[in-house]
Design goal:
Layout (H helix, E strand, L loop, with lengths): L2 E2 L6 E2 L16 H10 L3 H5 L5 E6 L2 E6 L1 H7 L11 H5 L20 H12 L3 E12 L2 E14 L2 E11 L2
Antiparallel strand pairs: 1-2, 3-4, 3-7, 5-6, 6-7
Length: 167
């Protein structure tokens, strides 16, 4: 089975490098490399048919997000960029004094741990799921959050596969 790159249309050839890609698998190595080389990720992120966050490792913050992610979280770019993931998701623990990723409740967060592991080991993660308490306006609800991660140079992609109330 062959596929074509969603950005340039070239045929994608499977290789060992591509087998570690779960989020950018529909984009050819050349287009992925070009985005990384130019630090212009907008076309790459928009070519992925899912809500995507692009994160840096230190500090672990969102650099940018595609339009699907902004719509999902009902946020503007400035409400996402330079914020931690839990702040973007509106996790209640991101509102504590310690903050997102530093609160004692974040220690065993499967989402945070998958992102940290992707940065440290370069291993992608698929379908990591957890339940978070999400604060919206004056209401707090339990949400199911599911993500996949992939290393992209010094950065990481986080694909949001599920973000909704379990009710």
């Amino acid at each position: 089975m062959t596929s074509s790159c969603t950005l340039c249309g070239r045929q994608i050839v499977s290789n060992a490098k591509a087998s570690r890609r779960n989020i950018t698998s529909a984009i050819c190595d050349s287009c992925v490399s070009q985005a990384a080389d130019t630090s212009d990720y907008s076309a790459l992120l928009e070519a992925i048919a899912a809500p995507i966050l692009l994160m840096e490792g230190n500090p672990r913050q969102v650099i940018t997000a595609n339009q699907e992610a902004l719509a999902l979280f009902e946020k503007k770019p400035e409400e996402v960029e330079k914020h931690r993931g839990g702040q973007v998701f509106d996790c209640v623990h991101s509102f504590t004094e310690a903050g997102c990723g530093k609160d004692a409740n974040c220690e065993n967060c499967k989402i945070k741990n998958a992102i940290v592991d992707t940065f440290t080991s370069t291993n992608p993660h698929n379908g990591v799921s957890t339940e978070l308490s999400i604060k919206k306006a004056n209401d707090t609800r339990s949400y199911v959050l599911q993500v996949s991660t992939e290393k992209l140079g010094d950065l990481a992609l986080v694909r949001i596969e599920r973000y909704d109330t379990d009710a």
